Structure formats: C-alpha cells, structure tokens
Known about the structure:
Strand order of the largest sheet: 1-3-2
Distance between the termini: 34 Å
Number of helices: 1
Strand content: 25-35%
Helix content: 10-25%
Radius of gyration: 16 Å
Largest sheet: 3 strands, antiparallel
Structural class: alpha+beta
Amino acid sequence: xxxxxxxxxxxxxWHRVSTSQTLAGCNLTFIAxxxxxxxxxxxxxxxxxxxSPWQTYGGYVYY
Length: 63
C-alpha cells in the first residue's frame, strides 16, 4: 500500500517584520520582540541590498 504524507498546514519560514537604516535600529526591534516572548533562535537581523548608498537591515521572525 502506498502511503503519502499529508502536506503541512503551515510551513514555518522567515518573515520580515521590520526594516531599519541601522543595525542598532534592527537590534532594538530584535530586543523588543525577544521581550515580547519570541525565542532568540527565531529572531534575526540581516543586511539587505548593496552596501551603499541605501543600505538597510531587515528584522525577521521564524514562524
């Protein structure tokens, strides 16, 4: 008998929750979300785009 796995109801992935002009601003969002109950292994700040002139940082939550 062939058994097929049912697709997951919702696949977990990284979702952008903020964009900041500075790493410090991104980390402030990271801290606020951490104190809001999100585990730190599910939060991250990443560099977006080229280094100049419009460098931004994205804050992400994994859910």
